[in-house]
């Protein structure tokens, strides 16, 4: 393997989050002065004599300067030692599992994991010989009981979870995992590194679907891993190159561009979400509003400790059941009916038949009366009015 290209991280590690989001890994180009990292649309690099690599670049599966910039920025934002960018969140997850587990080992996963993560374990990794147990990761004792000593290699946590917005205590689960010599992996997609930095609470590796808040504009599919210890960087770097599910230069550039405004966006997502939660709490049609910032949310105190704010995802249950949920999601106009989340535009969906349809009949099945919102950064009062109109139209 060539030496790691780039490594322009050190000079910004003392700075605040927003500064690092804009500068980490992204010095002006020394030749042209270009302020923004270029999209290096190249597969290969001229060598100055055999093996004479310039800054370590040899072939773009192994490394590409645009991807390096993104990887350094992500590592800085998550306060990790090294970042890796992939073609999708699931590609990142699969590479992580290839790199750090072997057939015969076992993983503990959340019982309300992202549907695609569950499908990866059930439909792919299981056939490779990797066993898994879904548990409620909000329950530290349940996690401890699910661990198989000597066999469990990874405890996998999402917090907040998708779509039920359960909160896991990262530090407590890290302690339980480490006592059993297992690693703690946190899927930080929902919070983003602006709201939560799991590596600072004891996690070993952070996973992202950069498709969501990191990219933030619903115009790219991507994934990332950030590791705390160099020890775990080695096998992941090897597998990133050996498996090859890397982020392309244009996709890397889009995510890097998105990261620059992550802090601004997350504050606005959180602000709008709070307004919508207030509104939903006043509606008779809604039997339960689920948001980690609510006093009655069982994870509120933990969320307050490990998150800066409570984020842009809001879920709620319709008193009249599945059909009422389906009717509502069909009637909004500003809230677009679509899967995915984390973009500037507001989205609405019915998890049971959409994002979580692949979990039907499994322990990860979600309630049929559930509606999930990805609250965007539009004018908050317009979003409230759109929902109000949809509720009223459903009544008529
Ligand atoms: C979307 C998502 C993923 C998968 O990422 P892709 O980019 O779609 O492959 C993983 N975890 C969570 C929490 C997600 O929302």
From TrEMBL:
GO terms for molecular function: cystathionine gamma-lyase activity; cystathionine gamma-synthase activity; pyridoxal phosphate binding. Its cofactor is pyridoxal 5'-phosphate. Keywords: Pyridoxal phosphate, Transferase. The keyword Phosphoprotein does not apply. GO terms for cellular component: cytoplasm. Belongs to the trans-sulfuration enzymes family. This is Cystathionine gamma-synthase. It comes from Solicola gregarius.
